[in-house]
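Good morning C.,

I know you're traveling, so I'll keep this short. The sequence:
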Amino acid sequence: MRRLRLSAVILAGLLGPLARAHARSAPPNPYPGYMSTTYADPAHWLCRPDLDDVCDHGLDATAVAANGRTRLERFKPARHPQIDCFYIYPTISTDPGGNSDLVPGADQELFVVQQQAARLGLACRVFAPVYRQVTLTALIAILAGHPIPADQNLAYADVLDAWKHYVANDNDGRGVIVIGHSQGAGILTKLVKDEIDPNPILRERLVSAMLLGTSLQVPTTADVGCDFQNIPLCHSRRDVGCAISYGSFRANKPPPPNSLFGRSTQAGCKAACTNPAALGGGSGTLHPYFPTNGVSLPILTVPPPAWVDPAKHVTITTPFVTLPHFVDAACADNGFSYLALTVHGNPKDARIDDIAGDLTPEWGMHLIDVNVAMGDLVRIARGQAKALQLRRHRGS
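The tokens, ready to paste straight into the viewer:
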């Protein structure tokens, strides 16, 4: 019996320091004990790493060269991603009221998450909650001059609830990219401003804020201030804790005076423009991923694009198409700050001569803000994940 007690004492002596070390290494929880009644249910997530969902399938692409030759790109998600991505989708719901319900539609929420977030699975674990957004129905009613009741606060409250649940129960101190487009980017701008920017614990975990198709405000002579006080713009894939934001227009069709994007909304501030093809500045060639059927918004009926000259007898069977060396981008500032897209179509080669994505002049290329740079966003996410791990290793 004495020998057993002695062994227990020795074991306790060995395990005690290990337990204390584990306790010290456990990441602090900014939302201790938080459990959402909504987002504890997997049915209210479009994508999660513990679900078999639309972020896991249907992402193969065909690369089309200028001479018409094609190359298959198989989608192989990262086996052990070191960071997470928290994605909020744009205005997509056609539910009849001013706010959507929490039941995702195959041609709405599920469609757009596959377009704009699933490919980030090459770099991160993807978390994408369903939320009661202001609907496309409400937006169309507003544009028609017959607004219907819609609650923006309800949409934000859902996203905040999902964010807190994710941080408290799934994040475990991992680095995270927050990414959203249009309405989703606007909601995330507020979430970053209210929850992440003033909180050192969450700022340390922020890999980047990718706020696309919106007008994030920065000072006219600096890249931090106005909307965010501690989060600057990204200038390199090695930068972490920074923001990427732009609204895209054709270079030969710049924003008109009534543009919805690229404009200053605060005195002394302007819309941020970070070029995902050249974060350090200047021009760069984008790496797009477009839906093969050409559908960027399901309510718009368009004929499938002829990605390759029919004379080549090429049949594309993958859900996505990518066009190498086809679209260049550079930030422009002419009173509006925006991402100017230049399409290098050539009627003499075997490839399509242009891309779709235009709505009206004031919307620019809003429909494809994300698709046109999807490959670049993945590349940035991979680089930032490595940079974060190196920073944490050096700090340990």
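Safe travels,
E.
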